[in-house]
Amino acid sequence: MSGTFVGMPAFPPFPRAAHDAVRDTTLRGNLRHATHTIRDKRAKAVAELADWQQLREAGKRIKDDTLRHLDRYLVQLEESVTAAGGTVHWAADADEANRIVADLIKATGETEVVKVKSMATQEIGLNEALAAEGIHAYETDLAELIVQLGDDRPSHILVPAIHRNRGEIRDIFLEKMGSWGRPAPDGLTDTPADLAEAARLHLREKFLRAKVGISGANFMVAETGTLVVFESEGNGRMCLTLPETLISVVGIEKVVPTWQDLEVFLQTLPRSSTAERMNPYTSMWTGTADGDGPQTFHLVLLDNGRTDALADDIGRQALRCIRCSACLNVCPVYERAGGHAYGSVYPGPIGAILTPQLRGTTSGIDASLPYASSLCGACYEVCPVAIDIPEVLVHLREKVAGQGGRGHRLEKAAMKAVGWAMDRPAVMAAGERAMARTRALHPKRPPGAQAWTDSRDLPELPEAPFRDWWKKNRT
Amino acid sequence: MRVALFVTCVNDAVYPATGIATVKLLERLGVEVDFPAGQTCCGQPQFNTGYRHETEPLVRRMGRVFEGYDHIVTPSGSCAAMVRDNYPRIARRAAAQRRGADLAEAAEFLVPRMYELTEFLVDVLGTTDVGAYFPHTVTYHPSCHGLRLLGLGDRPRRLLEAVKGLELRELPGAEECCGFGGTFAVKNPDVSAAMGTDKVRNAAATGAEVLCGADNSCLMHLGGILHRQDAPLRALHIAEILGSTEAEPHV
Ligand code: SF4
């Protein structure tokens, strides 16, 4: 489906965006420091569990089984949520989801909402859609707050402001908090404790005032209708408990069949994402409860391209993703290009396989994403649900190559020609010999080879190919 | 023992010294080496760029060319990984379209018989001391496909540690990709070069004279950066180090 909106359309192809990012030394420094720290911590946290590989396999199987019978589990989920006092809405795409949420908020008469950090609402551009209806959506996750105040874009799934350092955050707080609510204290320093306190004071008044909360969910349990949010700060729990109305927007692939299935993800998600044995806050709610928490609960189930991905027998494994971001943190390409280069709210390896499936591969950025990888396999190695990201990348490259256009026609012709020669050893040998014989004439930087020679020299060619040595010396 | 050498297209055309060193090393260890002349390329560049159909004739060719050999040895981790990881996948994809029984046959034959050089030395010949002599400081970069797809583990290290005169220096961030990645190197040249430059910096920090690897395509990229920087460090394939002896030292 090519019309699916996954945030931030009209971005330049990946290589062009990355060209600028690799030259931004502050960004490179911030990213390198942050990803390497969390990468090493994750490795230690995972090494503590002797049965990690079994947990990984179990997570993969639970997700695969659910996806295979998604129709059944979603209907079961709707029944459970309804029975527990919630209302379920179905949204085919971003527009429909945004419309449903806006109407629900308007029905309450409110013009302000507080938000739990959520990828699904980022994906559909909910904040912007609500703003167009005169509704202010306040991000309450610390990193999301930094992004929102800085009029910036998220560059990481878990740490959306990973591209910012403490000094930059201090400046954003000092400059922008005042226009959104309680200003930052004078003389704010860039120590983590000071920054957190400024955010706490700023957010507290929003929590106490808000009548509507908006969230996503990490998991939804079909048998009980329970939604689950994993978080570190407790701000999410404020949004989930204080308001009168709670609206959750969740991708349809987030359902798991049973409560017991959570046991696997409760172990793998925190260790993979924040490198913790357990995350500080795990909030679970089932419909509504009299006198306790929100008295009205709406669940918006979001497709937005997911059923298209589900129809692809290789691509569908991307729907197993639990958004831990371990693959981003180990990715050497992400580390250098930064999250913005991926042109979607899903950056890094998972973004490179998910975005082109949700949005289709027709735009320049989407067609370039499957190539934004050296296929080193570090992502697959750490993925807690064993998504073979390199396999999906190559599969999507095949799709892009097959659709022709923008250089791929020429590439296809070249690949065909090389393939033809490679299937004829005599032709290949003749080519090798011709290359070797004329080596003295080859320019050091031949025209058309800049992509290689701008940063690297070409190897010196040998006098003769190996096969000639063999013929002369061993036959 | 008689083995077939799969030299790979890159080594054949650009790095014949690696192929020659492999032959001499294996012969020195009492192995009889054949070079089936019909061999060309495993098809990795085509496959990884998204041209699966263009790869299929090369899978068939590999099956035909190496028929009858129980051991096929290749001085390239990524080409060995291509066969082991992707040939069955290519066959499965074709089978899903109800065709390509010959692809499945080729994959089935090749997968258990294809050995990356260090794997063959350690697992099949059961040796880590190959009697080599190389009086230099060396740091080893384990290329991704050897590391993650083949699981070469410490085999290359053990082989290098047993080389007389060789001093092995630990490479910081060894497991990070060098940034070659096949067509990635030219489709995303900026990121590729940034990764390569970091790798080269880490290698230079060890103070070693030689940056060793088991994949010449990665070494072509890293060597190209080193050459451009006029660095004192040079890139060299592990076969050429293991092939070097006191009687016939590497030059
Ligand atoms: S693809 Fe795997 S590693 Fe990456 S975010 Fe999703 S679950 Fe985590």
From TrEMBL, chain A:
Region spans: Disordered: 439-475
UniProt feature, compositional bias: Basic and acidic residues: 454-475
LUD domain boundaries: 76-301
Entries under PROSITE patterns matching the protein: 4FE4S_FER_1
InterPro entries: 4Fe4S_Fe-S-bd (IPR017896), 4Fe4S_Fe_S_CS (IPR017900), FTHF_cligase-like_sf (IPR024185), Helical_ferredxn (IPR009051), LUD_dom (IPR003741), LutB/LldF (IPR004452), LutB_C (IPR024569), NagB/RpiA_transferase-like (IPR037171)
The organism's place on the tree of life at top rank: Bacteria
Segments forming domain 4Fe-4S ferredoxin-type: 318-387
Occurrences of domain Lactate utilization protein B C-terminal (ranges): 397-473
Keyword Ubl conjugation attributed: no
Gene3D superfamilies assigned: Alpha-helical ferredoxin (1.10.1060.10), NagB/RpiA/CoA transferase-like (3.40.50.10420)
Coiled coil: none
Keyword terms: 4Fe-4S, Electron transport, Iron, Iron-sulfur, Metal-binding, Repeat, Transport
Name this polypeptide is given: Iron-sulfur cluster-binding protein
From TrEMBL, chain B:
Domain Cysteine-rich residues, every copy: 3-83, 138-222
InterPro entries assigned to the protein according to its UniProt record, in alphabetical order: Cys_rich_dom
Record-given protein name: Fe-S oxidoreductase
Species annotation: Streptomyces violascens
